[in-house]
Amino acid sequence: MIAVLLVDDMRVSREILKVYFAGQFEVYEAAEGQAALTMLESRPLDVVITDLRMPVMDGLELTRRIRAHPRFSRLPIIVLTGESDVRASIDLKTAGASATCSKPIDPRALIALVQSVLSSSRGSST
Length: 126
Fold this sequence. Notes:
The chain is an alpha/beta fold and 126 residues long. The chain is 46% helix and 21% strand.
């Protein structure tokens, strides 16, 4: 089963995503960026889904830190955002985000996006 790390400071948001993913993905959670980094070191994960706006370490900085580790250079990272700011999109791409997903989230579109980024990352490693 695909192991997904959900990173969001809002517990309710994580709970909603867990309902969307029930039966499709094995879901792990982190309420903030540092906890996500610790979790990445402790278990194999297939994809990270992080909110863009969080206190202390936002999704942009989390993406940068994940990409700073050679071990995670191909780990798919999807950033959830309510932003329509072109600059934010450019910053996320530069930081190494695999994809972004706009809020409000369409569950089927997010699941398809997870499958797409996983397929792309696996295809580029062969």
